Request: fold
Amino acid sequence: MIAAREIQVEKIAKSRLADTPLENIPFGRYFTDHMLEADYAGGEWKSVKVVPYGPLQLDPSTAALHYGQAIFEGIKAYRDETGNAYVFRPYDNWERFNKSALRMNMPTVPEEIFIEGMRKLIGVDKEWIPTMKEHALYIRPFMFSTDALLGVRPSETYKFLIILSPSGPYFAAPMKIIVEEQYTRAAPGGVGFSKNAGNYGGSLLAATEAKEKGYDQVLWTDAFEHKWLQEVGMMNVFFMMDGVAVTPSLDEGTILAGVTRSSVITLLQEMGIRVEERRVNIDELLAAYGKGRLTELFGTGTAAVIAPIKELRYKDFSLEMNLDKAPVQNELRARLAAIRSGAEADVHGWMWKV
Ligand SMILES: *Cc1c(COP(=O)(O)O)cnc(C)c1O
Reply:
């Protein structure tokens, strides 16, 4: 077993922090001084180390570049006034990462590397965690196959890395969404529940075409009827109907089990709001809207946290949501912010101290 203290650290000669203004820093563009790097070969993980952030050298035949064994996670860390660093629910991400790994026929990553590696890396680059309001350090663990071979088979070697990116407030502008009726993100038996790179690659064209039509994102539907609702872009989706929060269930394996989704379900229940995880289709939404019973639509995910939806388009119908009256999503957003900042007691143990 590898404990955090045993992970070797090779420090950068001179930190870049002084040259990187953290205030309002854009999402995902700047990276900290160090990264965690671990290699898998011969059936085991070896050489786990923290090294200066920098380019990787890869053989052009690197398997992941051709056959797509590549998975990732997205997590956020915060720092309080006293300098303590906290990560939001990292064990949930670790578990999900390993589910993605198994589906993609990749080795799992043990806690000693994923969690303890994260602890070690954040410890080294702690000063990079922005302390300004609504700022965070975005944590990106990822793994890909590294065999240098064009034969199609699961790779025998893999690289696991964690990189860190300070980020400013993510302004979740109210979104205009169009129901996707041509492309499919996920089908039963597929890889929709895994956070693999290919799911993102396969979704970009739909988002681009939605933008050309004047929308921000698509609402994904099932592969067969294009009626059953799945996710909004790369976020989970919630519908407030008749005071009940409805979100698509995870049963078919077509939906990514978001950590924010799970947190939101817990908070909704605490707020006394009934939550239904079930199949939900566009006709039900249209009918509820027609009767004035559809009151809120929103997306959930680590980057935007709670993303308001102001318009949903389906064929000739346009569902306009009044965001001046969006009490549920506003309360969820405020409570999650309060838990992160320490203003509200963390009764669920979501904030993991580094
Ligand atoms: C990452 C992701 C989400 C959100 O998951 P969180 O754990 O809440 O960040 C939702 N849908 C898809 C497709 C995703 O990749």
In short: The CA atoms of residues 34 and 52 lie 4 Å apart. The chain has two domains: 4-169, 175-336. The chain has a mean pLDDT of 95. The first strand starts at residue 8 and ends at 9.
